[in-house]
Design a protein that fits this description.
This protein is α/β, with parallel strands linked by helices. It contains 11 helices and 12 strands. Helices cover 38% and strands 29% of the residues. An 8-stranded parallel β-barrel has the order 1-4-5-6-7-10-11-12, surrounded by 7 helices. The termini are close together. Pathway: Amino-acid biosynthesis; L-histidine biosynthesis; L-histidine from 5-phospho-alpha-D-ribose 1-diphosphate: step 4/9. Belongs to the HisA/HisF family.
């Protein structure tokens, strides 16, 4: 299982939101590149970066910060937010992003996901962000009529490398992952699923290492890391021990 530390970008700074509300942004670092270096030193093997402004605007808005992260770390980076056409996908992949995450466009332009996955195998993921079971789009500002399972199944044969599933109601408020919904999605598709939204403590990491979660590819952690509720060394050591025992 991979534990992904999150770097959410707003106005060039590293922030955390509560339930996707841009008005409830806590700034944790004015230097996202330095934050990425810190995560790399701590031993994380993959970074999760989101251009929050881009998600609302429909195009990249924090490119300078993302490029600085890429310049300062060797750790692979997956990026979401404002990625809604093939030109943007290819530009980010050429700049060194390991995997792009397509969210809004996965709902509105599923053929884009299929084409991108065909052209760039292993480098395209789908972001499914759900509120009350329905998929939200445009930086979570609007809800679609699709539920998470329907959207996941839509890409079953598309060749996407992962689905990042976020329960918006839990995101940023440290109440634990929605394991029931996450595992339901993992059961419904053969695509690897990454859990997101609400990871609060080492107990959540321990939960992810239970046998019924073996089909999950990993989880994303944000606020719990930034405010010290989750000790990175402890979490990564726990995951390493579980891997050695497997």
């Amino acid at each position: 299982m991979i534990l992904f530390p999150a770097i959410d970008l707003k106005g060039g700074r590293c922030v955390r939101l509560e339930q996707g509300d841009m008005a409830k942004a806590t700034v944790f670092s004015a230097d996202p590149g330095a934050q990425a270096e810190s995560f790399e030193r701590q031993g994380f093997v993959y970074l999760h970066v989101v251009d929050l402004d881009g998600a609302f605007a429909g195009e990249p808005k924090n490119a300078e910060a993302v490029e600085d992260i890429l310049a300062r770390v060797k750790t692979p980076v997956q990026l979401g937010g404002g990625i809604r056409n093939l030109a943007t996908i290819e530009a980010w992949l050429q700049k060194g992003i390991s995997r792009v995450i397509i969210g809004t466009a996965a709902v509105r332009d599923p053929d884009l996901v299929r084409e991108a996955a065909r052209l760039h195998p292993g480098r395209v993921a789908v972001g499914i962000d759900a509120r009350d079971g329905l998929v939200a789009v445009e930086g979570w500002a609007k809800s679609s009529e699709l539920n998470a399972l329907e959207l996941g199944r839509r890409f079953e044969d598309a060749g996407v490398s992962a689905i990042i599933y976020t329960d918006i109601a839990r995101d940023g408020i440290l109440q634990g992952l929605n394991m029931e919904a996450t595992l339901a999605l993992a059961d419904a598709v053969d695509i690897p699923v990454i859990a997101s939204g609400g990871l609060a403590s080492l107990a959540d990491v321990e939960r992810l290492l239970q046998p019924d979660c073996a089909r999950l590819a990993g989880a994303i952690t944000g606020r719990a890391l930034y405010d010290g509720r989750l000790d990175p060394a402890e979490a990564l050591a726990l995951i390493a021990r579980a891997g050695a025992d497997a």
